[in-house]
Amino acid sequence: MCQLIKKRHSSPACQYRVPTCWSGQVSDSSRKHKLEKLYQARDAKFDEIVSPLYRKLYSALRPATAADRQYIIEEAEEFTNNWAVAEVDKRRPELSTALQLLLSEHQEICERIIRVLDTGQSDD
Questions:
Q1: DSSP-based three-state secondary structure for 78
Q2: How far is it, in rounded angstroms, from Cα 59 to Cα 42?
Q3: Where is pLDDT greater, at 14 or 87?
Q4: CA 98: distance to chain centroid?
Q5: Distances (CA, A) of 110 to 11, 30, 37
Q6: How far apart are the first and last CA of the chain?
Q7: N or C: which end of the chain has fewer CB within 10 A?
């Protein structure tokens, strides 16, 4: 039975989920490995986006609650979603902040994931 690996966040540019059975287009182990690496890179980049938001809103004096952490993740998801929409609409701003650079890098990883899934080939 084919199952889907649950993704960590819901950016529309990363809407695909990785099938664990790898039937159809994505059948070879090198593509499976490439997608796994891309998903790990996407999640790591998302963590890099969340981290400065967390530091900006919370300090060691007032640790974040579970609800606070969920809020930060939702904010980061909104940032990644808005960035993806801006790129699709060809209105991406100039990269002038660290957050914009991280969002751009995240989007690039998402686009690579989509290319691999759409073509069934590694993007190397």
A1: helix
A2: 26
A3: 87
A4: 16
A5: 9, 18, 12
A6: 30
A7: N
Contact 54, 72 (CB under 8 A): yes
Over range 93-117, report the average pLDDT. Answer: 91
Residue 46's nearest CA partner among 93, 86, 14, 4 is 14
Q: Contact at 8 Å (CB) between 42 and 110? A: yes
Domain ranges of the chain: 39-86+98-119
Query: 51-66, pLDDT tens digit by residue?
Result: 988 888 777 667 788 9
**Can you tell me the distance from the alpha carbon of 100 to that of 82, in angstroms, rounded to the nearest whole number?**
11
More confident residue, 8 or 71: 71
On the question of pLDDT at 42 being above 80, the answer is yes
Q: How many CB atoms lie within 10 A of CB 70?
A: 11
